[in-house]
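quick q for whoever's on today - can somebody do inverse folding on this one?? i tried earlier but teh output was garbage lol. tokens:
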């Protein structure tokens, strides 16, 4: 999968997977022995991406198990994030000495006729005013995916749940985006904090990434 985040000491792995093959994988030891074939396939696709990213980054052989609240369990000294659609999976990994949190998301672009009903739930009033008629499905998918990546990165740091109306995309162009929190998550992440992100389109999918540096001073990548 063609996505080069351009971040030092970060490894991204992603691609298409064969659901029929991965559905046969032994996932009992990972806590999915009762899951559906579809769920097992998606889970294994994401974990295999994560395992490959860990190996390429540091030569570590480890497939993250599922921990509390279904979050992946990373080996000591590492952090990461995993995402999947029905057909694609992705993972990003870094050392905690470089990044304290990562968030990655991969989404198929919404069809134009499915977009209108979702806009009020996913986009703030300000975001809605900046929509254009062209590629509406891609615009809404990008905002949705960016907020998903933001949540994946910030929830482990703050322990505070937040929702689509609690952050907004301020700008997005040429693979870089800027988001702003509209609600305070804790004293380190107050309302008004801005976080940058990266994104790219791969076929009919969008990939977004938020990386919070270890020396974070209120921004991401």
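ok took a stab at it. sequence:
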């Amino acid at each position: 999968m063609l996505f080069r985040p351009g971040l030092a000491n970060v490894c991204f792995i992603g691609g298409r997977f064969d659901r029929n093959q991965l559905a046969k994988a032994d996932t009992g030891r990972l806590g999915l022995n009762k899951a559906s074939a579809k769920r097992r396939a998606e889970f294994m696709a994401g974990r295999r991406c994560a395992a490959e990213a860990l190996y390429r980054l540091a030569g570590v052989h480890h497939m993250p198990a599922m921990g509390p609240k279904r979050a992946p369990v990373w080996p000591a000294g590492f952090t990461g994030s995993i995402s999947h659609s029905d057909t694609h999976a992705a993972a990003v990994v870094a050392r905690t000495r470089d990044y304290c949190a990562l968030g990655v998301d991969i989404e198929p672009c919404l069809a134009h006729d499915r977009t209108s009903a979702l806009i009020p739930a996913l986009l703030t009033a300000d975001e809605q005013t900046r929509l254009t008629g062209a590629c509406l499905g891609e615009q809404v998918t990008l905002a949705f995916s960016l907020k998903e990546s933001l949540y994946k990165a910030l929830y482990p740091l703050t322990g505070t749940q937040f929702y689509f109306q609690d952050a907004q995309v301020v700008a997005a162009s040429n693979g870089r985006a800027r988001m702003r929190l509209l609600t305070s998550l804790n004293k380190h992440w107050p309302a008004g904090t801005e976080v940058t992100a990266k994104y790219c389109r791969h076929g009919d999918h969008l990939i977004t990434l938020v990386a919070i540096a270890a020396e974070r001073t209120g921004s991401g990548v």
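fwiw Strands lie at 10-16, 78-84, 88-95, 99-108, 167-173, 176-181, 194-202, 205-213. also The chain is about 25% helix and 30% strand. so keep that in mind when u check it
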